[in-house]
Amino acid sequence: MTIDIARARAETPGTRHVVHLNNAGAALPPQPVLDAVTAHLALEATIGGYEAAEHANGRLEGVYDSVARLLACSREEVALAENATAAWGMAFNALAALPGEGFRPGDRILTARAEYAANLIPFLQASRRTGVAVEVIPSDETGQTSVEALEAMIAEPGKGAVKLIAITHIPTNGGLVNPAAAIGRVARRHGIPYLLDACQTVGQMPVDVEALGCDFLSATGRKFLRAPRGTGFLYVRKAWLDRIEPYTLDHSGGALAGPDRYTMRPDARRFELWESNIAARLGLGVAVDYALSWGLEAIRDRAFALADRLRHGLDALPGVTVRDLGAERCAIVTFTVDGHDPRAIKAALRGQGINLSVSSAPSTPFDMDARGLTEVVRASPHYYNDEAEVERLLAAVKAL
Fold first, then answer.
1. Is the pLDDT of residue 94 over 90?
2. Per residue in 187-199, pLDDT tens?
3. pLDDT tens per residue, range 249-308
4. Environment class of residue 190 by beta-carbon count within 10 Å: exposed (0-12), middle (13-18) or buried (19+)?
5. 360: three-class secondary structure by DSSP
6. If you write DSSP's letter for every residue of 210-242 in order, what string do you get?
7. What are phi and psi of 168, to 5 degrees?
8. SS3 at position 1
9. 375 phi and psi, to 5 degrees?
10. What is the DSSP letter of 68?
11. Residue 149: which of 129, 178, 120, 173 has the closest Cα?
């Protein structure tokens, strides 16, 4: 499949107003997503929130089928969430408190150098509460997480058991794509739970949870998937559903079976809470279907090609340094310009109608500190961007 750029742009109202190269932050939604959200809000205003939810029940159920197709899993393995942080946290906290298998003093969590701060803080919180150690897997010569180093750490004599491997597939601060499938094979071979943060992956490239080998995967809707903010989801491998219980459970994920007993849903939806943003979830389902209609391979090829064009153009500009790492590089491009503060660059280009972002050291401290970086400019093209927008960004950077 190939991308019809004219159609993609025509169906993206925002392209008529801005050069949006901040898809790693929050992408411009397509018209069908906008229509789905606003139509449901209008229905709530007309007939009432509960009544509108009943009216939309069939479409809401369809969202689970759509996400399952996106991830190549079953609908029973999908839970919807308000954001990726909530989805990730539900899985992590459940693992930390797993009866008879949870974290204990001397146990270890292995994570990547470019791990996101929103994940690092719960690691450290768990360490304070349980005594589990948090260890960083070294990177290889390309900058990606070293699979060989991971193997060596698992087998390291005199060390405690590795209770979790948790990495970010695509970090927030550069074009790196970590070798998630190879890490998954290591995790399976050693019987170690594997939690994958796929926030920047989903919607940018194909995702097959079986091929990746992960037991849990969290993602957001607002980035490359082009869904509304306040949406996300969690994948839970079916084999775990007989073993794991949410840290927080309500009457949506469970049911009272007597005055002193309760049961849980048999599927991943035990991780959901009852109240949710129905309009946003409908928008999420439409966004997933929309991405699938283009084809994730075609989306990846188009977005990666635009990013490569941008990297080559930036490399040719004096005083500009591209900061991306990895053997495989995605549609996130980071750079610095000698003598120019990244936030000043972002502000200056926004004044010209070009949206960028800034990644700072507190977001990925291990990686940024290791490379001596405090902030980088981040540009993230998507398939609906065109070559003229890339050239406009390059001209603006050259003129700084």
1. yes
2. 999 999 999 999 9
3. 889 899 999 889 999 999 999 999 999 999 999 999 999 999 999 999 999 999 999 999
4. middle
5. strand
6. HHHT-SEEEEESSSTT-PPSS-EEEEE-GGGTT
7. -95, 125
8. coil
9. -150, 150
10. H
11. 178
| 115: three-class secondary structure by DSSP | coil
Q: And the tokens for 74?
A: 């079953």
The DSSP code sequence of 33-64 is HHHHHHHHHHHHHHH-HHHHHHHTHHHHHHHH
d(CA 389, CA 352): 12
pTM of the complete model beyond 0.70: yes
Strands 261-264 and 254-258: antiparallel
Residue 370 CA to residue 136 CA, distance in Å, equals: 12
CA atoms within 13 A on the CB side of 373: 29
Distance CA 213, CA 182 (A): 8
Closest CA to 218 of 362, 70, 90, 28: 90
CA torsion, points 100, 106, 110, 116, in degrees to nearest 10? 90
The Cα–Cα gap between 289 and 278 comes to 17
Helix then strand then coil, % of the chain, to nearest 5: 45, 20, 40
Q: Are 228 and 41 in contact (CB under 8 A)?
A: no
Structure tokens at 160: 């405690």
Q: How far apart are CA 104 and CA 84, in angstroms?
A: 26
55 burial type by CB count under 10 A (0-12 exposed, 13-18 middle, 19+ buried): middle
Among the listed residues 93, 180, 167, 168, the one whose alpha carbon sits nearest the alpha carbon of residue 132: 93
Q: Which helix (H) or strand (E) element contains residue 119?
A: helix 117-130
Instruction: Specify the residue for token string 């069908």.
Output: 32
CB under 8 Å to 256, separation ≥6 — which residues? Answer: 262
What does the alpha-carbon distance between residue 330 and residue 98 come to, in Å, rounded to a whole number? 35
Contact (Cβ atoms closer than 8 angstroms) between residue 105 and residue 163 = no
Nearest Cα neighbor of 208 from 137, 297, 331 is: 297
* Angle made by CA atoms 209, 210, 216, in degrees to the nearest 5: 45
* Residue 135 contacts residue 124 (beta carbons within 8 Å): no
Cα–Cα separations (whole angstroms), residue 393 to 206, 243, 387? 27, 50, 10
